[in-house]
Amino acid sequence: MSDNRKKLKSIILLVIIVVFAFAGGVLYVFTKKFTDITKEKVDYTISAFDLINEFKNNDSLANKKYAEKIITVTGLVTEVESADTTVNIKMADTTSGSYAIFAFQQQNLTEAKAIKEGDKVSIKGSCSGGAYSQILETEFITFKRCALTK
Amino acid sequence: MKKTILILALALNSATMFAQKKITTSGVINFNATTSLDPLPKAENKTVVAALDTKTGAIAFEAIMKSFSFANPMMQDHFNSSSWLDSDKFPTSTFKGNITNFRTVNLKKDGTYQVDVAGDLTIHGVTKSVTSKGTIVVSEKVIAANADFNIQVADYGITGKGIDAGKVSKEPKITVAIEFK
């Protein structure tokens, strides 16, 4: 009798542990924040020039390849666009006007504000993919959660 | 001589046409579908392309859907998945419309102008007419346009268990903040 009760107690305890572990896991997934981009593994390293060309040539293919991937892009800064709480760095192909634009992580806004037009930089970020802009009549590729990288 | 005048006239015309269209590639759009049950479904897109025709008051914007940045990776994933915004199939959202009371706005004079905007909003491949109130603040050659409005997700064919469960708002708020310099 005592043996069975012991077994039952163990089972109940086990079930409680499993339920809590599961709940904990769910809570973790639902509240987890993105890792700081500087700590994320890089999927691709590419020049802005090559990236823009890949998107211009076939943006469906390029989107399948690069969207939501962490990419380090090197290139010349053609424009620094700042507003109240945002700083975006742009690397444009000056002949076609097609460009890649990088929106910086909150924790890296200060370093973004120090970047100047004409600087040669390496930026790491999450690629949001590219599209053809009807407004600009050029291809544009956007990045989020960016930071400077060496 | 006539040819030169014609060419000059055309060049001048296109120069003024370009001068009248203000463009930005760093417009900001916030999307907030949070509810009392879930504070997570909200995101910001900081690389929206927008244009304002300073002669006619025509206004347009384009947003790459995957550029809406969430704090939580799971939300980011779900938002773009085929059961929600299906961003692989519909990579951008667009708005094309007009400031309907543009006659009351003087973009050359510093000040705050209350505006009415109407146009076509396309999300998830569905286009709907929308209207919104907004403000335009002109200050030292910078034109700051702001508007916020709610959309009914069902209008754009967006459904899901999260909405039914009260975790994602049926009518999220869209906040647009665009600066034309």
Outline of chain B, from the CA principal axes? elongated
Q: Give the CATH architecture of chain B.
A: Beta Barrel
- Termini separation of chain B: 38 Å
The fraction of residues in strands of chain A falls at 25-35%
Identify the overall geometry of chain A: elongated
If interface size is counted as residues with C-beta under 8 Å from the partner's C-beta, which chains form the largest one? A-B, 31 and 32 residues
Q: Indicate the CATH class of chain B.
A: Mainly Beta
The CATH superfamily title of chain B:
Lipid/polyisoprenoid-binding, YceI-like
Query: Which ranges of chain B are low-confidence, i.e. pLDDT below 50, for 5 or more consecutive residues?
Result: none
Kindly provide the radius of gyration of chain B, computed on alpha-carbon positions and rounded to a whole number of angstroms.
19 Å
Per the CATH scheme, the topology name of chain B is Lipocalin
State the end-to-end CA separation of chain A.
69 Å
How would you name the CATH homologous superfamily of the largest domain in chain A? Nucleic acid-binding proteins
**Number of separate strands of chain B:** 8
Helix content, binned percent of chain B: 10-25%
Mean pLDDT of chain A: 93
Number of domains of chain A: 2
- Spell the H/E element sequence of chain A: HEHHEEEEHEE
Quickly give the CATH architecture of the largest domain in chain A. Beta Barrel
Structural class of chain B: alpha+beta
Commentary on this structure:
- Chain A is α/β, with parallel strands linked by helices.
- In chain A, 35% of the residues lie in helices and 35% in strands.
- Chain A is built from four helices and seven strands; from the N terminus they run αβααββββαββ.
- The model of chain A has no long low-confidence stretch (mean pLDDT 93).
- Chain B has a single domain (21-180), classed as Lipid/polyisoprenoid-binding, YceI-like (Lipocalin), CATH 2.40.128.
- Chain B has an eight-stranded antiparallel β-barrel with strand order 1-2-3-4-5-6-7-8.
- In chain B, a hairpin with a 4-residue loop joins strand 2 (42-53) and strand 3 (58-64).
- The mean pLDDT of chain B is 91.
- Chain B is of the alpha+beta class and 181 residues long.
- The A-B interface holds A 29-34, 63, 67-68, 81, 83, 86, 88, 90, 99, 101, 103, 126, 128-131, 133-136, 140, 142-145 and B 23-26, 28, 40, 46-47, 49-51, 60-62, 64-67, 69, 71-74, 76, 80, 87-88, 91-92, 94, 177, 179.
